Amino acid sequence: MSPKARKPLPPAPRPAREERPGRSARPPRPAAPPPSRVTAPRPPAPRRDDFPVTSCDCDDCRAACLNAPGWFSPDQVPRLAKHLGLAVEEVFRRYLAIGVTHLPDGTQRLGVMPHKLRDGKKPGSRWTLAEIAQPGRCVFYDRGKCSIYPARPFECARMMHDRADDAVRLRRRVVPRWTDAALAPFLALVAAGSARRR
Length: 198
What we know:
Blueprint: H1 59-67, H2 76-84, H3 88-95, E1 96-102, E2 108-114, E3 116-117, H4 129-133, E4 137-138, E5 141-142, E6 145-146, H5 154-157, H6 164-174, H7 180-197
Antiparallel strand pairs: 1-2, 3-4, 5-6
């Protein structure tokens, strides 16, 4: 019989390093942190406009043109005048009126709107709540289309017709813009027009 082959022995473990007297053991080095991604700071989110400009040609929008035109904001009246190639005073006397709105807190506020074509009411006038409640076609609504579409009123450009409370919130957005100073020139034109008609 042949002698059995011997298996090699595993290597002996290395003896622990002996510390020299007077030297302290080195603390283990901390593992390097993984490289982090450098991200640029995010720009602030743009303020969402609750009432973005819309473009609509539905029955509800056309009904508004036939019953209750929307209000302009003060800065839009000079733009409308430029669009029509007329002075602001002339635009007001021919096409606009001072409207009134009743706010939920019980106050009444004024603003400038397109004239509503109604018997006996002239452009450049001031409307009462009772008159505003009566239907009347917007002076700029012609053959089923808005004749000043690029310069249409603030409220018309943001027409909300799916929820009534949105229409109230939209009116509340434009009302504060009609300050006493913004209204003063138009109230003066109404007074001058009334004096001429007497």
